[in-house]
Amino acid sequence: MVNPTALLIKDELVGFAKSKVMLVLWVILPLIATAGFLILPESIKGNVGHRLTATAFMSLIVANIAGTIASLMLAVDIVSEKNRKVYELFIIRPMPRRAIILSKFVAVFVSVTIACLISVAIGIAVDWVRGNALSGAAIYDAFKSMVSLTAAIGLSASVGVFFGVASKTILVAVILILFCPNLAIVPMLPMYFGLLPDSFWMFIAISVGLVILVLWGSIALFKRNEF
After folding, report:
1. For 24-52, how does the pLDDT look when each residue is reduced to its tens digit (9 = 90+)?
2. Which of 62, 85, 126, 154 has the fewest CB neighbours in a 10 Å radius?
3. Domain that residue 175 falls in
4. What is the 3-state secondary structure (H, E, C) of the chain?
5. What is the pTM of this model?
């Protein structure tokens, strides 16, 4: 018997992969970011404390937009389907409500993370072609940056799910996402106040815990909705 969550994840991944949004994230965004780095004056690249690499530039670009995109994609998609009475179909074909939430979260999380990996990989390739191959330490730093970025995407995506479930209109969901404080700063607070050791992996552990907590709350709220 096919797991309903796995089946929905597959359907959602295919749906998002075919969407114009993912075409922009996977193809157009890396091309624009690469062109932006190449035309950036060398004087600016050298005025950031150290020479700005394509890898660092790509990481900065995707870090600034990936979380917001993931959150908006999920919130808008969930509210849109609620308004179109899509979930009423599951009365005819019973499906665990947690499967709906988890499938959307996983699909968007994976899709946006792939987009970030593509952009950073292109940055590494550009550095290599320009004779600025990354050292072992730089590669490790890039790895930690990507793990941190992945955690931030997960947090933003979970928030997008929650606001999508809680909101009745797309406008309300978008406003909440754009103007509410960024949940990504929460894992840093215990370390800032000295309550926990300042550790990269501690930050990741707290982030994962928050993602699970927000998703649990979203599923509980979604189960209370009447379709």
Report:
1. 888 887 888 888 787 877 655 555 445 67
2. 85
3. 4-224
4. CCCHHHHHHHHHHHHHHCCHHHHHHHHHHHHHHHHHHHHCCHHHHCCCCCCCCHHHHHHHHHHHHHHHHHHHHHHHHHHHHHHCCHHHHHHHCCCCHHHHHHHHHHHHHHHHHHHHHHHHHHHHHHHHHCCCCCCHHHHHHHHHHHHHHHHHHHHHHHHHHHHHHHCCCHHHHHHHHHHCCCHHHHHHHHHHCCCCCCCHHHHHHHHHHHHHHHHHHHHHHHHHCCC
5. 0.85
